[in-house]
Write a structure and sequence with these properties.
The complex is a heterodimer of chains A (115) and B (113). Chain A is an all-beta fold. Chain A is built from no helices and eleven strands. In chain B, the strands form two sheets. In chain B, strands 1-3-8-7-6 form a five-stranded antiparallel beta sheet, with no helix packed on it. In chain B, strands 2-10-9-4-5 form a five-stranded mixed beta sheet, with no helix packed on it. Classes of the chains: A mainly beta (115), B mainly beta (113).
Chain lengths: 115, 113
């Protein structure tokens, strides 16, 4: 079974630009979560989508947004990039919620550098 | 704010040693307690997890122990190997709260040959 696929793996942007990251979850998984990982703040939850609906949202500004498509693939967008947005963005999929949804399966991440 | 603390921040042991990593949490509603392992350049991967109805769970060389009254759970790695060198995160979660895991700050483990 294929794992979680994230594209692109690396990208460089300049301040003020916007970026879109893509995530293809494991087949059959309906939940997709996004996390930001930085050396200073660790792993921070951005949002979770389940069956095309945002179910949970972390404490990030509105510049960070996401969506999920009917095939469970997800995208996240960051507008008006700031230097502090430089990070590894990780996508994780899971079967769902409750006792059956416990484990997160992470992709290898998209490393964003903002200059 | 759901706070999760890990200790130590980093750990160096000799091959064969038994590193212990601790995780303390505040939210008593958490009911799923996993440890994730992350190698450089890779995403985290589930290592072992426990639910609060048991106090200990062992999978191979990895043991997780849970102390509900102290709101703590720990990871023990028996007969540690250089290949265990990685960053370890605890990530407790409340089951009916979707997939919003609160990750600890991480513990960087180095196992010397």
């Amino acid at each position: 079974k294929a794992g979680v696929t994230q594209t692109p793996r690396y990208l460089i942007k300049t301040r003020g630009q916007q970026v879109t990251l893509s995530c293809s979850p494991i087949s059959g998984h309906r939940s997709v979560s996004w996390y930001q990982q930085t050396p200073g703040q660790g792993l921070q939850f951005l949002f979770e989508y389940f069956s095309e609906t945002q179910r949970n949202k972390g404490n990030f500004p509105g510049r960070f947004s996401g969506r999920q498509f009917s095939n469970s693939r997800s995208e996240m967008n960051v507008s008006t990039l700031e230097l502090g947005d430089s990070a590894l963005y990780l996508c994780a999929s899971s079967p769902g919620s409750g006792p059956i949804g416990g484990e997160l399966f992470f992709g290898e991440g998209s490393r964003l550098t903002v200059l | 704010q759901q706070q999760v603390k890990q200790s130590p921040q980093s750990l160096i042991v000799q091959k064969g040693g038994i590193p212990i990593i601790n995780c303390a949490y505040e939210n008593t509603a958490f009911d799923y307690f996993p440890w994730y392992q992350q190698f450089p350049g890779k995403g985290p991967a589930l290592l072992i997890a426990i639910r609060p109805d048991v106090s200990e769970k062992k999978e191979g060389r990895f043991t997780i122990s849970f102390n509900k009254s102290a709101k703590q759970f720990s990871l023990h790695i028996m007969d540690s190997q250089p290949g265990d060198s990685a960053t370890y995160f605890c990530a407790p979660r409340q089951d009916n709260y979707g997939q919003n895991f609160v990750f600890g700050p991480g513990t960087r483990l180095s196992v010397l040959p």
